Amino acid sequence: MKKERRKFSASFKAKVAIEAIKEDQTVQELASKYQIHPTQIAAWKREFLEKAQLVFSKEAPATSNESENTKEKELYSKIGELQVQVDFLKKVLGK
């Protein structure tokens, strides 16, 4: 039986990354505390530091909610187009 991969929330990743940045404990100590590989902690820390400037940028990146709304609007417009085509074909073939 396959072991399911663990999924961590963004808040948990940020918490661990901040603790790693503080350097109150070693990465090895944090790894044993949170049951995570030290390489994973280093990766989260690096990603956190790389994206830290986005917090203070004037242009906030599009959130996933906004992108979902855009995709939803596109899908509804496509459904509308297809419905018009179906209605037209029904009308033409029905005569």
Describe this protein's structure.
- With 95 residues, the protein is mainly alpha-helical.
- The protein has two domains: 8-56; 65-95.
- The chain has helices at 10-22, 27-34, 38-50, 64-94.
- Helix 1 (10-22) packs across helix 3 (38-50).
- The protein starts with 9 loop residues before the first helix and ends with a helix.
Low-confidence stretches: none
Number of discrete domains: 2
- What does the largest sheet look like? none
Structural class estimated from helices and strands? mainly alpha
Beta-strand percent range? under 5%
Q: How many helices does DSSP assign?
A: 4
Percent range for helical residues? 55-70%
Shape annotation? elongated
In angstroms, what is the radius of gyration? 24 Å
- Termini, distance in Å? 59 Å
Number of strands: 0
Helix and strand string, N-terminal first?
HHHH
Mean pLDDT: 89
